[in-house]
């Protein structure tokens, strides 16, 4: 697809048509990625048991770290890339992609090497104990050795989508999900590799995704190219500045996991961690839908901002608001009605563990009524380069309020308070957005247009 074709579609077609053209592939792709996560949990739970499941959950922050660094560079670079396309500056767009790609490769290679040297210490810091430590080490070892492929896949997926090819990004996720399920079954059940098999399946499926995404570069219409460009520190700083909210949000997921694990240990012991592991697998699946919505919105808003089409930005945000509300209601209904069979997917367990996980799922999913709005506005401010407001939302929901509620609510309501910490944090941030930001944002966009980024 040539750049003028991208411009023609984004400028001339109805906003709602463009929105769903990007949203549907993004949602399908992200939901299939989330299936990977749940399948990992189901296979590990059935083949190895709930302690191994807890070990994989404790290991997940290291995966989140790699993913977050990739988003830091990918989303920041992708937003600048789309802004450059909106301004018809193809050379600048290709410089941005080249810098972002090699930056991800170098940063993740160095991080993997350093982390591998201190593997046991990191596992203990994440909350491993004598029961879970072997499983944590097994999983983390594979992720650290092959983590660079996670980063490349995430980066290419972002840029291919920003280059007007969301369907290929979706196809990559479809094949990644299929191969992940197949490899999980073969490596865990046939070869008996346990947690290591789950980790191998995860990273090898990322390589499949990279191969699929690489086909984009063979299209004559592709704008995405590696170019010879002098190293620009200023460009890397700009990429990192815009991508920093995404990095912080992903780090927030690691903080969320660690915080919940610690709160569960203090409140309910190892059985609490196992129950949270099940809920967290299902949470990861539902969360991907909202991440997918943000991934669909970002290229559109960044392009419109570069092209100074502010009315289209407002229209896109309002459609996204309504869409995420529908997703939130559907997620909550799903969690309430199907909690029992969903928990049962994760293998045989004691009645106490099953009951605790079912209760947690129903309470935890209340947060989906609010989380989507927060994602829409985090991505909106980030997509126009207004990093400060995006960071405020990110820090409130992922750090300040979450940690505060995890500290206060369990003291007041016990285990119920632990489950309600996320819904309370997300609801509080929505109130902040609705009462203080939303109206002023639209007013400024209409009155001052392109100068909104200077606020």
From TrEMBL:
InterPro entries: MATE_fam, MATE_MepA-like, MATE_MepA_subfamily, MdtK-like. It comes from the Bacteria. One of its GO terms (biological process) is response to antibiotic. GO terms for molecular function: antiporter activity; xenobiotic transmembrane transporter activity. One of its GO terms (cellular component) is plasma membrane. It is found in: Cell membrane. The chain crosses the membrane at residues 22-43, 63-84, 96-119, 139-160, 172-193, 199-218, 239-262, 282-305, 325-347, 359-377, 389-409, 415-437. It is a multi-pass membrane protein. Belongs to the multi antimicrobial extrusion (MATE) (TC 2.A.66.1) family. MepA subfamily. PANTHER family: SPORULATION PROTEIN YKVU. This is Multidrug export protein MepA. It comes from Pullulanibacillus pueri. The lineage of its organism: Bacteria, Bacillati, Bacillota, Bacilli, Bacillales.
């Amino acid at each position: 697809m040539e750049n003028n074709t991208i411009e023609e579609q984004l400028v001339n077609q109805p906003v709602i048509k463009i929105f769903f053209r990007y949203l549907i592939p993004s949602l399908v792709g992200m939901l299939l990625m989330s299936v990977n996560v749940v399948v990992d949990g189901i296979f590990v739970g059935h083949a190895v048991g709930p302690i191994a499941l807890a070990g994989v959950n404790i290991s997940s922050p290291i995966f989140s770290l790699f993913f977050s660094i990739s988003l830091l560079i990918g989303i920041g670079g992708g937003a600048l890339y789309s802004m450059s396309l909106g301004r018809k500056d193809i050379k600048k767009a290709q410089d941005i992609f080249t810098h972002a790609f090699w930056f991800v490769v170098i940063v993740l290679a160095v991080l993997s090497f350093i982390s591998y040297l201190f593997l046991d210490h990191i596992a203990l810091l994440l909350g491993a104990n004598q029961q879970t430590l072997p499983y944590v080490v097994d999983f983390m070892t594979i992720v650290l050795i092959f983590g660079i492929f996670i980063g490349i896949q995430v980066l290419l997926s972002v840029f291919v989508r920003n280059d007007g090819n969301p369907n290929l990004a979706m196809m990559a996720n479809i094949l990644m999900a299929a191969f992940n399920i197949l490899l999980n079954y073969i490596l865990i059940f046939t070869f008996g590799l346990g947690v290591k098999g789950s980790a191998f399946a995860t990273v090898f499926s990322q390589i499949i995704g990279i191969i699929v995404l690489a086909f984009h570069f063979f299209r004559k219409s592709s704008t995405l190219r590696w170019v010879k460009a002098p190293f620009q520190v200023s460009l890397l700083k700009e990429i990192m500045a815009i991508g920093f909210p995404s990095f912080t949000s992903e780090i927030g997921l690691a903080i969320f996991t660690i915080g919940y694990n610690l709160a569960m240990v203090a409140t309910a012991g190892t059985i609490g961690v196992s129950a949270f592991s099940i809920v967290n697998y299902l949470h990861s699946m539902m969360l991907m839908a909202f991440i997918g919505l943000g991934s669909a919105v970002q290229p559109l808003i960044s392009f419109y901002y570069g092209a100074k089409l502010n009315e289209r930005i407002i229209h896109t945000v309002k459609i996204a608001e309504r869409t995420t509300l529908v997703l939130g209601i559907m997620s909550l209904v799903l969690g309430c009605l199907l909690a029992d069979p969903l928990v049962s997917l994760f293998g045989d367990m004691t009645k106490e563990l099953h009951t605790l996980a079912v209760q947690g799922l129903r309470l935890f999913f209340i947060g989906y009524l609010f989380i989507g709005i927060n994602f829409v506005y985090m991505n909106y401010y980030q997509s126009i380069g207004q990093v400060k407001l995006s960071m405020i939302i990110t820090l409130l929901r992922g750090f300040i309020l979450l940690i505060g509620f995890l500290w206060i609510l369990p003291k007041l309501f016990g285990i119920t308070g632990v489950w309600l910490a996320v819904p309370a944090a997300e609801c509080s941030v929505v109130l902040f957005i609705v009462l203080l930001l939303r109206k002023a944002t639209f007013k400024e966009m209409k009155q001052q247009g392109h100068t909104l980024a200077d606020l």
